[in-house]
Write a structure and sequence with these properties.
Elements lengths: L1 H4 L25 H7 L12 H12 L9 H9 L5 H8 L9 H12 L2 H12 L9 H14 L7 H11 L2 H10 L9 H30 L2 H42 L7 E7 L5 E7 L4
Antiparallel strand pairs: 1-2
Helix pairs in contact: 7-8, 8-11
Length: 293
């Protein structure tokens, strides 16, 4: 037991991330910086995008400094703080002191979490792209661009990408591109095709925003809102009138019953038509029985 406790392998630094320090230098990373990068956590779940995680991390690192520490050194030291769950267990499973540069760290991270299966699924999303039935052209373009950003190793040329996009958009949008191309969009160069697509997307976006504003203006029409308020007020007035008429009718019935009971046969029987207003404002006629012969 004593020999096992004194085994030197138990005492070595098992941290797999060991970027070299410039000779004679040391750097202190503040808790505030660590807390900042920990706000962007990666767990290693299938729905998470490892490329986007690295992009966000590098963007944060571009805004911070730690006593003059080299950026590559800083990234190596901080990246592990952005990992949790399955991702943190993965980095701890790496051999001790096996990662010494930020490039090595990125290669290892993407090699583990950006799998071939994931890349194939993303390539399929690109190749099978279709504009939605009610999807605006500019939103379809943004979605297609998102697909290509998610999979930079798709292996397709720029010309092939725009051919896929052209085939996937609606017939109406293809017609617009063909018209702008003087007949055939497919005869354009990649540069010309991109300009035409971006111009159409810009025009579509402007029209879409204008349509939304028009709908909003219609829905918030002050005249229509004022009419609705007046209509509600009139309905309330009519309801109040109906309740008042009903109260008077009930008082009349009670009074008639008392008189009939008191005078009996001294009062001849008669009927009288009574007019009243209903809750909806319509006029009604009702026969009130006053006595009996």
């Amino acid at each position: 037991m004593g020999d096992f406790d004194s085994n030197p392998t138990l005492l070595i630094d098992r941290n797999p991330i060991q970027p070299p320090l410039p000779e004679g230098r040391s750097y202190e990373i503040s808790p505030e910086i660590i807390g900042l990068v920990k706000q962007n956590q990666f767990q290693g779940k299938p729905q998470e995008n490892p490329l986007e995680h690295i992009d966000a991390f590098e963007e944060i690192c571009g805004t911070i400094s730690a006593g003059g520490a080299p950026k590559e050194y800083l990234k190596c030291k901080l990246f592990s703080f952005t990992l949790t769950g399955k991702a943190l267990r993965w980095v701890k499973s790496l051999p001790a002191q096996s990662i010494t540069t930020w490039k090595e760290y990125k290669v290892a991270f993407l090699g583990h979490f950006f799998t071939k299966q994931r890349a194939n699924l993303l390539r399929e999303k690109i190749s099978s792209f279709q504009q939605g039935p009610v999807e605006p052209f500019h939103e379809a373009l943004e979605r297609f661009k998102d697909y290509t950003r998610e999979c930079p190793n798709h292996g397709l040329s720029e010309g092939s990408l725009w051919n896929i996009f052209y085939r996937g958009i609606s017939g109406k949008c293809r017609f617009s591109l063909d018209t702008a191309s003087n007949g055939n969009f497919m005869t354009k160069t990649v540069t010309e095709a991109k300009i035409l697509i971006e111009n159409l997307a810009s025009s579509d976006s402007d029209n879409f925003i204008g349509h939304e504003r028009a709908v909003k203006a219609i829905n918030s029409d002050p005249y229509r809102d004022g009419y609705s308020e007046i209509k509600a007020m009139m309905a309330e007035i009519l309801r109040n009138q109906g309740r008042e008429v009903e109260r008077q009718r009930e008082a009349y019935r009670v009074e008639s019953t008392i008189i009939q009971d008191y005078f009996g046969d001294l009062i001849p029987s008669f009927q009288e038509e009574v007019n009243f207003v209903g809750i909806d404002g319509s006029a009604h006629r009702e026969e009130a029985w006053k006595g009996r012969a």
